Amino acid sequence: MKKLLALILLFSSLVSLQAQDRGEDDLGAWAMIFTNNRISEKLSIHAEAQYRTYEFGSNFNQLLLRTALNYHISDKAMASFGYGNITTDTNFLEFAGEENVNENRLYEQFVLKNSLGKFNFSHRYRLEQRFINRPSGENTTEHRARYFLRVTYPLNDKWFLTAYDEIFINLQNDFFGQNRLYGALGYNFSENLSAQMGYLKNDFAVDTYDRFQLAVFIKTDWRKK
């Protein structure tokens, strides 16, 4: 009887340890594509897709699809209103029949740009309204603010370095949401096509995740010549 009880306790502890494994020690990956499509002197359409994994190239974590209408106030200022659909697997452990969290998101943002010598800065202020549907049937609405600061330094006409920090602030309980610190090497294939390869450290209140990132940026111009 004692041996059986010991086996039960051992099995329970192993299950508990597995349940607490959120993949913090694994290098995940984000593959991303961003497009900006100019439709008039003042307006453009933003569209992006991001595929995120808990492990490098495997173990699905999140699919993010986002679009926005941008109003270009000047070359240095832009306002946007956008929508995103986000599908998230919140469980690092994969198992058959699992259901994902689905989120519909509205957001408003304001972007300012400035430069200091060869350094180029971008400041993004964003508000989000998040409509979250969980597999349990619980639906919630959450609000969040984000501040993003990017700095870019050109090495030559083609290569550049870039880094950013972004903080997420919840506008309800648990004030701190997360912080993202990123650094990358970028390459300009042309004026309208570039790519970046970098590393992201994503800090939450209780977890920290390391992510490899590969991003492609495309610009198009739909204005009549």
Automatic annotation (TrEMBL):
InterPro entries recorded: DUF2490 (IPR019619)
Pfam families with a match to the protein in the record: DUF2490 (PF10677)
Span of the signal peptide: 1-19
Keywords, ordered alphabetically: Signal
UniProt protein name: DUF2490 domain-containing protein
Native organism: Dokdonia donghaensis DSW-1
